[in-house]
Amino acid sequence: MTFQxxxxxxxxxxxxxxxxxxxxxxxxxxxxxxxxxxxxxAVFEDTQLFVRGVGESSDVVTKEMYTxxxxxxxxxxxxxxxxxxxxxxxxxxxxxxxxxxxKVWTAGxxxxxxxxxxxxxxxxxxxxxxxxxxxxxxxxxxTIAVAWDxxxxxxxxxxxxxxxxxxxxxxxxxxxxxxxxxLRGLDLDEATRQRxxxxxxxVLDDQRPEVRAQLTDAPVMxxxxxxxxxxxxxxxRELLSDLAIPWTDAPRLVRGLDYYNRTTYExxxxxxxxxxxxxxxxxxxxxxxxxxxxxxxxxxxxVGLDRIVLAVEAERRQDAERDVVAPLGxxxxxxxxxxxxxxxxxxxxxxxxxxxxxxxxxxxxxxARGLKGAMKAADRSGASYAVLxxxxxxxxxxxxxxxxxxxxxxxxxxxxxxxxxxxxxxTS
Length: 428
Ligand code: HAM
Hints:
- The chain is of the alpha+beta class.
- 38% of the residues lie in helices and 20% in strands.
- Strands 1-5-6-11-10-9-7-8 form an eight-stranded mixed β-sheet, sandwiched between helices. It has a five-stranded mixed β-sheet with strand order 13-12-14-15-16, with helices on both faces. The protein has a three-stranded antiparallel β-sheet with strand order 2-4-3.
- The two termini are 46 Å apart.
C-alpha cells in the first residue's frame, strides 16, 4: 500500500519549491527592511483563543477548524490563522511592556477545513506581519507598503489593493442596524436570514448572483463612519498617495474574521479565478481585550504564499508568451561541475565549494556518470557554465570551462578558475 498526503494539503518539491522560496523571501526581505522582527509561535493553541479571537460566528470557527482533544482531554486547535496566536504570544512574553509598536512577522503552515480547489487548501502557507500597540494611521500605511513592495519585488504587476473602513464600536452598531433593516426587506433564504441577525456584514460577502443582485442598494459602512474613523480613513488614503500606492475604494469589502475595525484591506490578482485573494489584513483594536489582554490597538496582514506562487507563475507565463524577459528564478544553479575519471571528484568538489564560499550557486555530478549523462545534468541544472576536470586537465593543471549558452570552451589554469567564474557571474 502506498500513502498519499491528506486531501487538500499543499506541498512543494523542487523545482517548483524555488518559486515558493522566492515568494517567502520577498516578504521576509520587505519586512526586515521595515525593521520587523521574526516571531515563531505555537502551531496549536487552546481552542477558546480562536473562538474568542477570530469570532464565534465566523465561518473559520464554526466550520473550518481542526480541533482535537489531547491525551489529557484539553481542546486544542491547529492554527487557522496567525493573528490571535501571535497576539497571545506577544502578551505572554510581555513584549507589549517594551517599546511600542511591537513589530513582528511570522510564516508557516495554517489549517482550515475548506473544500479544496485550485488556490484553496486545507494546509496552506501564510506570511503574516503585525504591528501591535499603536493606533497611528501611519502604521496602517506602513503595513500596506511592506506587502505592496514585496509583490512588486516579485515582478507582479497585475495585483490590486482594495481598501475599506469597518468603523469602530461607536459607529459600527448604527451601520449594522441600518444594514439589518435593509437586508430584512430582501428575498433571501432561511440560512441567510439567520445570518442577518447574527453577522449581517457577512451577507455582503455572499457570492451567489441572486443574492448579489439584491445587494446593490445596501447601505455601506463608509457612509456611517464617525468623525474619528472618517479622519483615520482619510489619513490612511493620504499616506498611501504619498507612497505612490494606488488603491480601489471597496465599501462592500468585508473580511472573514470578526476582529476587524477601521482600516481593512485585501490584495487580489485577476489571473487567479475564484480564489483571487492573495493577501488581506486590517486593524483589530479590540482583539487584545477580547483574549483577556490590556487595551492594545494593532494592525497587520497575512498573505497566502500558495496563491502568490500561482500569480507569479501566471504572470511569468503571460510574459513568456509576449516575449517579455521574465525575472530569473534566483535559486537556479550558476556553475555545474563535471568530474571525468576517478581522481577528479575531489578537485571538482573543492572548486565547487570554493565558488559557493565566494557567493555563487554551484552544483556538481555525484556518483559515476558518463560524459553524456553528466552534460545532460549540467543542462538541466540551468547553470551558465559547466566546469570539466578529467585526467588530461589534471595533468596540465587546467580546468575546462564550457559556456552552456553558446558552447564556447575555455581552458583556464586551475588556480584562476574561481576568479574567472566569479568575475563573470557575481552580478547575475
Ligand atoms: P485571511 O484573509 O483569512 O486573513 O487570509 C489571508 C490570506 O491567506 C488570504 O488573502 C489568502 O491569500 C490566503 N488563504 C486564506 N485561505 C486560504 C486557503 N484555504 N488556501 C490557500 N490560501 C488561503 C487572515 O488570516 C488574517 N489573520 C490576516 C490578518 C493579519 N489580519 C490582521 N493581521
